[in-house]
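The instructor's notes for this session suggest beginning with a concrete chain rather than abstract definitions. Hand out the sequence below and ask the class to guess, before any prediction is shown, which regions might be ordered.
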Amino acid sequence: MIRVAIIEDNAYMREGWKTILDFEQDIVVNQTFDSCESAFESEEFVHNDLLLLDIQLPGMDGTEGLKIIKNKYPKLLVMMVTMHDENEKIFKALRNGAIGYLLKKVSPSELIQAIKTAMEGGSPMSPNIARKVINSFQKSTKLKEELNEKEVEILSALSEGMSYKAIADKMFLSIDGIRYHIRHIYQKLEAKNRADAVTKGLKFNLISSEN
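After discussion, reveal the predicted structure:
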């Protein structure tokens, strides 16, 4: 029996999913919540196998809640079910530990199959989400080939908020040398400024978010 929990603030959607899933012989909806905070208060939350999690929630949003959930309940599989298909939200959810990403227009049969696929070790995604992930992977691979080791190190230093002088001292280069490398980084990433370059560096996994 697959034990499912749902965190969704729309009561109609939440109860609709529960009704659909409870009709399946091998799926049972153990718990439903309207926020991450209410789920964290439940002592029974640990007894679920899979969580359907929305992003836009009252209080803590789903991607931030996901980070806490994966830290506290590492064995719990989390699948995002949301109306948001923006790249930033998709990749933040995946980085924070989601194993699947579905849009709310998913059909009942697709939702059921996605849960079973996730439990079997798969990573179900709506088709256009999968396309975005593939495109991002291809772009990331291309950029990793284009940026050299020194440029990645400089980009990482920029993400830490270091000044040009501090980076120059760290890498034993002149400030003009650092400016030269940063211009090339901006060109390769098609970035307008430091913040844009760092955002793209994180998005395409060129640098670590732990910096």
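Then share the key points. The beta strands are 2-7, 27-33, 50-53, 77-82, 100-103. The chain has two domains: 2-132, 147-203.
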